[in-house]
Amino acid sequence: MSAARLAHAARESVSGLPRAFWWLWTSTLVNRLGAFVATFMALYLTLDRGYSASFAGLVVALHGLGGVISSLVAGVMTDRLGRRPTLLAAQASTAFSVALLGFMEHPAAIAAVALLVGMTSNASRPAVAAMMADIVRPEDRVRAFALNYWAINLGFAVSATAAGLIAEYSYLAGFLGEAALTLACAVLVFVKLPESRPEGAPTGAAKGTGAEPAIGLGTVLRDGRFMSVVGLSFLISLIFTQGSVGLPVAMGAAGFSPGDYGLVVAVNGLLIVLLQIPVTAFIEHRDPQKLLVISALLAGYGFALTAFAGPVWAYALTVCVWTLAEIVNSPTQMGLVVRLSPVHGRGRYQGVYNLSWAVAALVAPLMAGFVIDRYGADLLWAATGVLGTVAAAGYWLLMRGLSEGAGTGGTAVAGGAGAAMSKPVPADAGA
User: Fold this and answer.
1) Which of 173-177, 246-250, 423-427: highest mean pLDDT?
2) What is the distance between the alpha carbons of residues 122 and 35, in angstroms, rounded to a whole number?
């Protein structure tokens, strides 16, 4: 693709989106620029504090458990209290808990505050996704989610480099820096973002009495098609999480250094920053069924190819394959989640959807460790190929009804769970 075509694709990707979206996008970027705890927690505990790898693993697992808990609680808060109050509460409490963690000395206190950080830092996700769905037109949502994902990876790429330098000077400075940037996000939300929850949404005081039916977690869990998406998302999450769990362990066992792994995994963030916008321009109005099937196969077999990698450059090539899957899958799947979410239940639906990634973050390390220790890394990579194939078949079956009457400019399903399962939505609507 020529430079002129790339520039045109970039202009097309950012045009026509509301100002509120860009403030939300900016808050995401600032938040990810401060990402320190999740990236350097294990190194902080083992190298700086002198704790064992087992204790570090326990603390990281507790951090993940916090995300599991907050996914559901924050989803309910997003619908009942509103998007803006949930964002403010999540970001302010994250700033406090991250700063507190930097001063903890006792192992029990570190573990407890790590759980709190996991809860607070993940609590904003359902509100961000719901607000984005509220303020962006249905036909622009795939593009909006892709741009938000691009901001996440751009912020992570910068923060990972900067945080590594900061950690050499002071881990406490890293904790306080993340707290300051997260607090800046809360201020930005308070000043620039109005509440976006649709009028007439059921609240705790008027539950079941308004024009819209009340939507509880039970409604979400009984939504068969949506829960199928959550299950498929869990399979995809198990695959992608191996990039930070199984891959470093396998490369270490093969004799590679941490620097080699860092070089290989850096390809993931670099490609997302370079390709997310042009690839999104290419896929934006294409059949989501095909995109999800292809991305699942690329993810599964991209990781499966790791079994045949020898030198560092071969590992980097496998990363290129599954990174392309990640670029395609993330905005497309988020668009599908919004399509299946009733307008006044978006928070709860997003909370349950985020649960799939949070649970995968707990299961994937156990899965990788057990398989590699018992059977070797090659079986783990073969398993990712199987998971990718199963997920691809699941997406193909799930999307058959939704792919009928493909077109553009469709609207999200606004009824309850039954409406989401029975009413076909244009496949290219992106919502």
Assistant:
1) 173-177
2) 12
Q: DSSP letter at 255? A: T
- The most confident of the ranges 23-27, 57-61, 341-345 is 23-27
Q: What separation in angstroms does the CA of 233 have from each of 29, 240, 292?
A: 24, 10, 11
* Helix axes of 53-80 and 83-101: crossing angle, nearest 10 degrees: 160
Contact assessment for residue 296 and residue 391, using Cβ atoms and an 8 Å cutoff:
yes
Contact 166, 68 (CB under 8 A): no
At how many degrees (to 10) do helices 19-33 and 125-135 cross? Answer: 160
Q: Are residues 145 and 334 in contact, defined by beta-carbon separation less than 8 angstroms?
A: yes
DSSP secondary structure of 93-134: HHHHHHHHHTT--SHHHHHHHHHHHHHHHHTTHHHHHHHHHH
Residue 315's alpha-carbon distances to 123, 219, 241, 273, 325, in angstroms, are 34, 44, 16, 19, 16
Spell out the residues 6+ positions from residue 137 whose beta carbon is closer than 8 angstroms to its own. Answer: none
Residue with token string 């290129």: 320
Give which of 228, 237, 240, 327 is closest to 284, Cα–Cα. Answer: 327
Reading the block at residue 389, the tokens are 């194939």
Which tokens is 207 given?
């539950």
C-alpha to C-alpha distances, 212 to 56, 202, 215, 314, nearest whole angstrom: 47, 7, 9, 54
The residue to which tokens 């995809």 are assigned: 236
CA distance 209 to 219: 17
Tell me if residue 430 falls in helix, strand or coil: coil
Mean predicted confidence (pLDDT) in 12-28: 83
CA 237 to chain centre: 9
CA distance 350 to 334: 9
Give the residue among 107, 108, 112, 117 at the shortest CA–CA distance from 40. 117
* Mean pLDDT (whole number) for 176-204: 80
Closest to 329 in 3D by CA, of 236, 267, 245, 424? 236
- Say what the pLDDT of residue 415 is: 30
Of 383, 38, 67, 393, the closest CA to residue 239 belongs to 383
Q: What are phi and psi of 344, to 5 degrees?
A: -90, 10
CA–CA dist 284, 288 (Å, integer): 9
Phi and psi torsions of 51, nearest 5°: -80, 165
Predicted TM-score (pTM) of this structure: 0.70
